[in-house]
Amino acid sequence: MYDAIIFDFDGTIIDTEINLFNTLNKHINDKNNEPISLEEYKASIGSVSKELDHKILTALGSELALEEMFKDHYEGTKRLPMKPVVKELVEYGHQNQIKMGIATSSYKEHIMPNVLRLELDKYIDVVKGREDVAFVKPNPELYIQAAHELNVKPSKCLAIEDTTNGAKAAIDAGMDVIVITHDITEDLNFDSLDLLHKNIEAKEIINLYL
Question: Which PANTHER family match (predicted)?
């Protein structure tokens, strides 16, 4: 039994990762430059990579072009639905007075439009983003801060993640983690991580762990 559920956002609450990957390479292709490979993208998913960021900026040619790419990406995310497993968990958590939070390596200003669009602000008690910490995932600081603000011990928090970087962050924060993968992360190697479960339906999570 857990007293709180803490969700990652990108790829977990809504499936933003494939949208970003495709939008990024569309803009790079428009510049007639070599696209970013899926393997390069996967290596930094759920975290940040200065090396990849530099390569992307070089391929796009300017900070302005990078801003335009992200603007295009964020516009594209406005049509994305909440993932069904998360929707069921949020509804159950609300009905059963389970505290809920979001811990994301993204800046809060980038995810809040979708948080509000999906009306998650009615149910989520805490949102922690990149601007709140010195180090993002796989560092555990985001999860530690979220648990602290929820006033729940990390051991009583269940984390829902989609990446190895995110899962490692939650585990190192002292939390149990369930990973729900998607097209981008389904073949990532989670073998070294002590997961509570992987790719399980919401009803099973509720029956087994909540």
Answer: 2-DEOXYGLUCOSE-6-PHOSPHATE PHOSPHATASE 2 (PTHR18901), PSEUDOURIDINE-5'-PHOSPHATASE (PTHR18901:SF38)
Q: If we measure between CA atoms, which residue out of 190, 167, 168, 189 comes closest to residue 178?
A: 167
Provide the angle, in degrees to the nearest 10, between the axes of the packed helices 108-117 and 63-77.
20
153 DSSP 8-state letter = -
Amino acid at 84: P
Q: What is the pLDDT of residues 103-135, one digit of tens each?
A: 999 999 999 999 999 999 999 999 999 999 999
- The pLDDT tens digits for 61-73 are 999 999 999 999 9
Residues 137, 49: Cα–Cα separation, whole Å: 11
Q: Cα(99)–Cα(123) distance, rounded to whole angstroms?
A: 8
Structure tokens at 107: 């800046």
> Are the CB atoms for 1 and 152 separated by under 8 Å?
no
What distance in Å separates the CA atoms of residue 43 and residue 52, rounded to the nearest whole number? 9
CATH of 4-14+81-209 given 3.30.420.40, 3.30.1300.10, 3.20.20.140, 3.40.50.1000? 3.40.50.1000
